Amino acid sequence: MKRFVLLGFALAILTFATFSRAADPNQIPATKEAPDGFVSLFDGKTLDGWEGDAKFWSVEDGCITGRSTEETPVPYSEYLVWQGEPVGDFTLLVDFCIYSGNSGIEYRAWKDDARNFGLNGYQADISPGDIMGILYGEALGEIIAWRGEKATFDKDGVKTIERFGDAQEIAKSIHMTGWNTYRVEARGNVFTEYINDVKTSELVDERPSSPKQGIFGLQIHPGPPMKFQYKNIFLKKLDK
Fold this sequence. Notes:
Layout: H1 2-20, E1 39-40, E2 50-51, E3 57-60, E4 63-68, E5 78-82, E6 90-100, E7 103-112, E8 118-126, E9 135-138, E10 142-145, E11 149-153, E12 159-163, H2 167-171, E13 179-187, E14 190-195, E15 198-205, E16 215-220, E17 226-237
Parallel strand pairs: 11-15
Antiparallel strand pairs: 1-17, 2-5, 3-4, 4-17, 5-16, 6-13, 6-17, 7-8, 7-16, 8-9, 9-10, 11-12, 13-14, 14-15
């Protein structure tokens, strides 16, 4: 009996040690294999399959890296644009880190020819502070849902807001200037965003103008010099 007690105790300590070893948010995550049913949108070495202004986008440390400097300011919101076919319903997984500035993941997007590498669409926003985790709409209503909010547009475009969580409590699960994982889900007219498996914002969009499919893009925003990185970008199409 004593041997079983000691064995159980040892297993308990091993289990605790395993689950208590949190990944260092300042460490670039390892390259991952695409989960079952997903495909990778980034090969970890090149920008093949993406197009953007080479002044701002490169691959460094095995990551898609966006960077602006005082010598290369961003004139307006530009994107690194995924060159795949438009997608309807999906789940998107993306590891990201923002060291400074403002970025975001554009989805159900369409090209805006008035801007160089311009896109319009929904956006999972990325910026340290209150904007991290919000649902933004470029040409779709700007800030649609703050962190902790579920927004609903009815067919006439009238928006209502329900709160499902406290923004500051949700923020405790986010590394504001470290590595995190975004999960974005689009199912019909329902869009849900998660960071590190914690829901940050949600939208039900019943407007006739709501895009039914679109492409993806990574944003670089006007402002002071900035840097951010993306890695392990995986897409699962849910279209029937």
